[in-house]
Every structure is written in structure tokens, then in C-alpha cells.
Specification:
The chain is of the alpha/beta class. It has 10 helices and 8 strands. The longest helix has 23 residues.
Length: 230
């Protein structure tokens, strides 16, 4: 097992905890993403415990890079943040586990053994938030797909940060008409303000989708949206 955490007290504490179990051997540790990745690739541990946020990188990046070299190395993200976006990124990077630092010592030891054995481990609190977010995104995507071409244009222009007046000028509409559309769109999507619309657009379609083309053509929906079922 290899440990990467830029907080020395945390790193030493976890290492000392794991040393109490004869079945777990800590082969190395580092507070640097760069050093940690290099040593993980050199040592090839069964499991790498990775802090999500490091001074010179992220545990998710380390996980992605180390598994591209050796898929047999299991990654376990250990973090203080129960962020659904972070766990989604971790899963995409090939992480086998995502647990919060408030986890009890015995549970962490058991979790490491599970991950080493090929199982997945996700903190129940984080997992429930991810499910909620996925359901919200699914409902929002359904609503967006049901919008008229004009409404979709307005949604993406809102996401770009345009005011009602700017949208009216872009689409050759009355400002009052745009205001009515915006109010209706935010209500249908369950949003309270325009900033949430921009965040939703990025979440559903990626950063590039919040900047629609300045033409009268209908903005494209995320590739594969028609096939997405949940």
C-alpha cells in the first residue's frame, strides 16, 4: 500500500493505523502528487490511498496516470469533501474507492482490504448525493430536450452569462418576451437564479456548451443525449 497526502499529520496517522494490521504493508508515502506518482509506478503497490486535493495536483489525476501505466494498481481516494462531481471524476479515472476522512480506523482498514481484493468502496453519504445529482441531471436533461428550439437558444445564452437585453438583441426579440421565457425556463428546471443555469449547462454538456455559437442555428444538444436514459 502507498499513501499520498500533503498533510503530514494525516499521512503519518494513517500510516501508523495501517501498520497495526499485519496484512497491510505500507511500502511508501509522499506529500507530493509528482513524487507520489513516480514512486507508485516504480513500487507497483496493490493499493494507492490518494488525497483528493494536493498542493501540486489531485489524487484523481494520480489515479488516472498510474492506472494508465498499470491497471492492476487500485486507487482509493481519501478526502474531506463529499462532492458528487469529485466522485464522478474519481470513478471515471478508474478509482476503486472514495471515502471520507471521518471514516473510522477499522472501517478504513477493512475498506483497503476490500479494494485490494477487487471490490469497490464508496462512502454511503457520498453515494446517496451522487444518485440524487444523477437523478436531477436526468430530469433536467429531459426538460431541456423538450424545449422548443427558441427556448434552447435562450437557455444556452443564459448559461453564457447574457442579460435579457443582450439575449433580446441577439435573437431579435422583445426584452419582455425574453424575460418571460427566462422566468419560465428557470421554473421548469427547478432553478432559482441564472448562475444555476450556467452551472447546469456545464454539468450536462461540458464547459464548452455554456458558450453557444453566435448564429441563429439551434445549439446542439449533448452528443448521445437522445440515448441517455438515466
Amino acid at each position: 500500500m502507498y499513501l499520498v497526502d500533503d498533510h503530514e499529520v494525516v499521512r503519518r496517522g494513517v500510516a501508523s493505523l495501517l501498520a497495526t494490521d499485519p496484512a497491510i504493508e505500507v511500502v511508501g508515502q509522499s506529500g507530493s502528487a509528482t513524487v507520489g506518482l513516480r514512486e507508485i509506478i516504480a513500487l507497483r503497490p496493490d493499493v494507492a490511498i490518494l488525497d483528493a486535493n494536493l498542493a501540486d495536483g489531485t489524487g484523481v489525476d494520480i489515479c488516472r496516470e498510474m492506472r494508465s501505466v498499470d491497471p492492476n494498481i487500485k486507487g482509493l481516494i481519501l478526502t474531506s469533501y463529499d462532492d458528487p462531481d469529485a466522485i464522478s471524476s474519481a470513478i471515471l479515472a478508474g478509482a476503486s474507492g472514495y471515502v471520507l476522512k471521518r471514516i473510522e480506523g477499522n472501517s478504513l482498514i477493512s475498506g483497503i482490504k476490500l479494494v485490494a481484493g477487487g471490490h469497490s468502496l464508496i462512502d454511503p453519504t457520498v453515494a446517496s448525493r451522487v444518485v440524487e445529482q444523477m437523478e436531477l441531471q436526468r430530469r433536467s436533461l429531459d426538460v431541456i430536450c423538450e424545449l422548443t428550439p427558441q427556448q434552447r437558444k435562450i437557455f444556452f445564452l443564459i448559461a453564457e452569462g447574457m442579460t435579457n437585453r443582450q439575449i433580446a438583441e441577439r435573437l431579435y426579440l422583445a426584452e419582455k418576451t425574453v424575460k418571460n421565457h427566462v422566468t419560465g425556463l428557470l421554473s421548469r428546471l427547478g432553478l432559482q437564479h441564472r448562475t444555476q443555469a450556467a452551472l447546469l449547462a456545464v454539468r450536462l454538456h461540458g464547459p464548452e456548451a455554456s458558450t453557444p455559437a453566435p448564429t441563429a442555428a439551434e445549439p446542439s444538444v449533448m452528443p448521445g443525449a437522445a440515448r441517455r436514459v438515466g
